[in-house]
Amino acid sequence: MSEALLQARGLHLAFGGVKAADGIDLDVLRGEFLAIIGPNGAGKTTFLNMATGYLRPQAGTIAYEGESILGLAPRAIVRRGIGRSFQLPQLFTEHTVLENVALAVAAREGVWSPLRPLLRPAWREEATEVLARFGLATLAGARADALNEGARKLTDIAMAVALKPRLLLMDEPTSGVAAAEKMAIVETLARVLRETGVTAVFVEHDMDVVERFADRVAVWSQGRIAALGPPGTVLADPAVQREVIGIEGPGAAAAGLPGGIAAGHA
Amino acid sequence: MAGWLEQNALLLGLALLDGLAYAALVFMVAVGLNMVFGVLRIINIAHGSLFAIGGYAAASLGLFLAARGLPDWTGYVALVLAAALVGGILGPVIERGVLRRIYGHEQVLQLLVTFALFMILEDAQKLIWGVQPVSNDAPLRLLGTVDVPFGEDVIPFTAYQLFVLPGVALATLVGLAWFLRRTLTGRVIVAVTTDREAATAMGIDARRVFLLTFTFGAGLAALGGALASPTTTLVPGLGAATIVLSFAVVATAGLGQIEGAAISALLIGIGRSAAVYLAPEFEVVVPYLIMVAVLLVRPQGLFGVVETRRV
């Protein structure tokens, strides 16, 4: 069960003098929900970008299901089964919610028949079914630019799920969502991902969400993984707490972790 | 005022009919230009040359078929066939050979490259068809004229310009609206126009969409030129005149829905014809006066949306 789906070894990437990845080693285990936390600029999104082909590491390897995906284009990585959702939902605003999801189904199927409708019965049915899982059925006919932020986030993730990934990387799935809606959204997406057997990695700033939904937490700091383990252990670590307070507290600029933190790989 | 209207009623009627036919042609070019820009993000200065080459190819093919003694109706087949050939060959050649290399580059470079392409196509056209006027009005004559009642008078007008040109433009408008709003390919084109990154992230092959859109736009321009060929004498410079006018239409409409391009083509087409009949010295500037007037009031164009784009 605890077999690695994604394996990153020795990832290095520097932008000018800034080390966004400074030796990242990480195994994402099949079936787990792995949360990534850490201050802004620690390299969390950079890691997602390297794993999905948007950035190429200067050194190191990334393997998915035992095969290297280094140097593959984002499109090719999507086709292998690694989905991605972005901090800002990438919806097609000219399309309805149903069409957005149907486009994802179409993209997955890769069918090219110029004059056939997008909403052909099979795709409409599948898209409707995906929306129902996310509790979005009533919004199917709404234009994507008319949605509130929570519905936009869920639609974005519904599109990612419609691509039938085995691994889904999500960049702050609840950012910009009203606090009251937050838990309901994470609950919905966690339920759907468990039902569909998708392994998930998500960047998250809300520690309540992390504690409740993550199987493991990885703490990012200055391009390194400073701590890794179950949320109960990792979040109780005083050094991590400082780190977390550094990002949550107003005015407390994250000065980065002191070197003394235990980098324990679980 | 009433006296002036009475005196010029016939001219106005003629300007309206002429303008409608002209607007139909301009629409075919402008809608393709608009689509290509929406998807590829490149302003293709050579787009008008495809109109010109479509016209020349249609006239030559029509004359060739007629010289072989083929029946007259094959002249109409020649129009469509020539447009399909020009669009189907030049479209992919230009997209694959030239444009693909400059996607995402600075706009200045893109403008220079498509301007160079425009000059090459203009010269190629002179090389093939020479600088002497070329004309084949057989498709126009074949359908004869219709007497259009206008008040107490009738205006004799060619059936080709009265029915065929607006008919094809209307069919293009309706067909394109259906294509973009219902079909998979159309929805993918709109998706790539809205957000190319997101479409690529989903696994959509944007390059294929670029090729298809450009070929389609090139085909529409060539079809416009082919349909125009029976109504005019083809001379060098047609491409330049066409692209400038299409820019005026696209700028007036804004990057809007295709219906917007149609309405703005009507506005500019009829405005221009009115000038031809009533104040010929202003013929050339009227389209731009309309454009400037619209842009002064609505900088994003009549139907343009500031924050999001539509095709």
From TrEMBL, chain A:
<keyword id="KW-0547">Nucleotide-binding</keyword>
<dbReference type="Pfam" id="PF00005">
    <property type="entry name" value="ABC_tran"/>
</dbReference>
<dbReference type="GO" id="GO:0016887">
    <property type="term" value="F:ATP hydrolysis activity"/>
</dbReference>
<protein>
    <submittedName>
        <fullName>ABC transporter ATP-binding protein</fullName>
    </submittedName>
</protein>
<feature type="domain" description="ABC transporter">
    <location>
        <begin position="6"/>
        <end position="247"/>
    </location>
</feature>
<dbReference type="InterPro" id="IPR003439">
    <property type="entry name" value="ABC_transporter-like_ATP-bd"/>
</dbReference>
<keyword id="KW-0067">ATP-binding</keyword>
<dbReference type="GO" id="GO:0005886">
    <property type="term" value="C:plasma membrane"/>
</dbReference>
<dbReference type="GO" id="GO:0005524">
    <property type="term" value="F:ATP binding"/>
</dbReference>
<dbReference type="InterPro" id="IPR051120">
    <property type="entry name" value="ABC_AA/LPS_Transport"/>
</dbReference>
<keyword id="KW-0813">Transport</keyword>
<dbReference type="InterPro" id="IPR027417">
    <property type="entry name" value="P-loop_NTPase"/>
</dbReference>
<dbReference type="InterPro" id="IPR003593">
    <property type="entry name" value="AAA+_ATPase"/>
</dbReference>
Automatic annotation (TrEMBL), chain B:
<feature type="transmembrane region" description="Helical">
    <location>
        <begin position="102"/>
        <end position="121"/>
    </location>
</feature>
<dbReference type="GO" id="GO:0005886">
    <property type="term" value="C:plasma membrane"/>
</dbReference>
<feature type="transmembrane region" description="Helical">
    <location>
        <begin position="50"/>
        <end position="67"/>
    </location>
</feature>
<feature type="transmembrane region" description="Helical">
    <location>
        <begin position="73"/>
        <end position="90"/>
    </location>
</feature>
<comment type="similarity">
    <text>Belongs to the binding-protein-dependent transport system permease family. LivHM subfamily.</text>
</comment>
<protein>
    <submittedName>
        <fullName>Branched-chain amino acid ABC transporter permease</fullName>
    </submittedName>
</protein>
<feature type="transmembrane region" description="Helical">
    <location>
        <begin position="159"/>
        <end position="180"/>
    </location>
</feature>
<feature type="transmembrane region" description="Helical">
    <location>
        <begin position="20"/>
        <end position="43"/>
    </location>
</feature>
<keyword id="KW-1003">Cell membrane</keyword>
<keyword id="KW-1133">Transmembrane helix</keyword>
<keyword id="KW-0812">Transmembrane</keyword>
<keyword id="KW-0029">Amino-acid transport</keyword>
<dbReference type="GO" id="GO:0022857">
    <property type="term" value="F:transmembrane transporter activity"/>
</dbReference>
<feature type="transmembrane region" description="Helical">
    <location>
        <begin position="209"/>
        <end position="228"/>
    </location>
</feature>
<dbReference type="InterPro" id="IPR052157">
    <property type="entry name" value="BCAA_transport_permease"/>
</dbReference>
<keyword id="KW-0472">Membrane</keyword>
<feature type="transmembrane region" description="Helical">
    <location>
        <begin position="285"/>
        <end position="306"/>
    </location>
</feature>
<keyword id="KW-0813">Transport</keyword>
<dbReference type="GO" id="GO:0006865">
    <property type="term" value="P:amino acid transport"/>
</dbReference>
<dbReference type="InterPro" id="IPR001851">
    <property type="entry name" value="ABC_transp_permease"/>
</dbReference>
<feature type="transmembrane region" description="Helical">
    <location>
        <begin position="262"/>
        <end position="279"/>
    </location>
</feature>
<feature type="transmembrane region" description="Helical">
    <location>
        <begin position="234"/>
        <end position="255"/>
    </location>
</feature>
